[in-house]
Amino acid sequence: MDQKQFQKIIDDKNPKVPYFMNILKAFIVGGIICTIGQLITFFYMRFFPFTEGTAANPTVATLVFIAMVLTGTGLYKKIAQIGGAGSAVPVTGFGNAVISAAIEHKSEGYVLGVGGNMFKLAGSVILFGVLSAFVVALIKTILVNIGVVSW
Amino acid sequence: MKKSVIVFLLVFLLCACSSEKEKVIFPADNSTSLKPIMQKQDSIHGYKGVINEEDILVAIYINRFDRFNKTKIEKKISKQIEKKFPEKKVLVTGDQKIIWEVESIIDKKLKEEELRKSIEKIKSLSKEET
Amino acid sequence: MISSLVTAFVVGGLICVIGQIFMDVFKLTPAHTLSTLVVLGSILDGFGLYEPLIDFAGAGATVPITSFGNSLTHGALAEAEKHGLIGVLTGMFEVTSSGISAAILFGVIGAFIFQKRKTTY
User: Fold this and answer.
1) What pTM was estimated for this model as a whole?
2) Chains A and C: how many Cβ contacts under 8 Å?
3) What is the CB neighbour count within 10 angstroms for residue A141?
4) Hey, are the CB atoms on A45 and B97 less than 8 Å from each other?
5) Which residues numbered 72-91 in B keep a CB inside 8 Å of some CB on A?
6) H, E, C per residue of B51-95
7) Residue B36: Cβ within 10 Å count
């Protein structure tokens, strides 16, 4: 039995990924979360002095708050089973990763448990966010300084 | 199933695009000079303007797919208005919040002093950054 | 107003579809997928393309995690525009994201209120 046959057996044993259904579910669940976000944005713009540009911050915070309630009650896990990336990509998924890790390690204490494990899953997102922001800003500033592009 | 969803979404989008054609300038007697500028813009489907002694404030309804160029459209229109009214401060914006604020000014038919105050409020709102 | 909701739905959904394709087709873990999307958002802002997307889609562009990379890059670029090369450095320490502070705050509150389940994620 060579490598090819072995790979074929593995492929047969593994269930086929239902690409289309997964994508459709991700589209619908992700779309619904963003629509709720848009409704929250409208709410903040209507009743508070926020414009389209500034309403994004309280919207994100509110969504993370909703994610906290859903995570604590175990509902977010059910949404994630249906939505896949549709529930992971919106900021609620980021909130869910942080909050669930915090709840999970509560028993080890607030410093070592909650504080130490909170960013176990979300840490890479922050790392790459900050790193890529730095690199992109650096490259663009250099390009502007040597006159290739403008702001 | 899949097709019907797509058709439904398309119909929904098209219906939503062709709603409300509102073109109002407040107070109305000033409107003649501003109207020709607004009339020839093809990337907006409506506008609401407020004018007093020192400010011109125009809230524009940008077409859905022109919203990608929102800042460019705002700049273009405000330049054209500035040319015509060099002595006034011009603010053109497609921001939903400011559209609502301008609508409420027009609904309440605010006069002089109150009008000036709400225009100041809107201007400081639009200056805020994220 | 309804058209804003529909565009938010479609654009937000499409960004999630990109994430799902990363996960299913390229077999990335969720952490890899999210990191890739954040970097993507950051690069798009470098080309000045993410702000127009926000103008177009509203929450459809601000709610997905890509906007996190965008807001960090945007802060750094705004500072760099003012102060040049040194602004990149100082800008990096000024930018914040409401997503992170909200996640930290509600994470602690959540840990305080809720009890551990078998699995929460």
Assistant:
1) 0.86
2) 294
3) 23
4) yes
5) none
6) ECCCEEEEEEEECHHHHHHHHHHHHHHHHHHHHHCCCCEEEEECC
7) 10
Residue C22 at interface with chain A, using a CB cutoff of 8 Å: yes
Binding partners of B (≥3 Cβ pairs within 8 A): A, C
Mutation target to probe the C interface, by most C beta carbons within 10 A, among A39, A141, A143, A145 is A141
Look over chain A and give the mean of its residue pLDDT values, rounded to a whole number: 90
Q: Express each pLDDT in C59-103 by its tens digit.
A: 999 999 999 999 999 889 988 888 888 888 888 777 777 888 899
Write out chain A residues lying below 8 Å of B98, CB-based: 51
Does the distance separating the beta carbons of B98 and A55 come in below 8 Å?
no
Which residue is listed with tokens 């601000």?
A: C62
ipTM: 0.89
- Nearest by CB to A57, from B95, B125, B130: name it: B130
A70 inside 8 A of chain C by CB: no
> For chain A, which residues make up each domain, given as ranges?
15-120, 122-151
C71 to B130: CB separation less than 8 angstroms, yes or no: yes
Residue C26 sits at φ, ψ, to 5 deg, of -95, 0
The answer to whether A26 touches A84, Cβ cutoff 8 Å, is yes
Task: For A59-70, give the DSSP string.
Answer: HHHHHHHHHHHH
Alpha-carbon distance A117 to A101, whole Å?
6
According to DSSP, the β-strands at B89-93 and B23-26 are unpaired
User: Treating both helix axes as pointing N-terminal to C-terminal, what angle do C98-113 and A91-104 enclose, rounded to 10 degrees?
Assistant: 40
Q: Are C9 and B23 in contact (CB under 8 A)?
A: no
Residues forming a β-bridge with B93 = B59
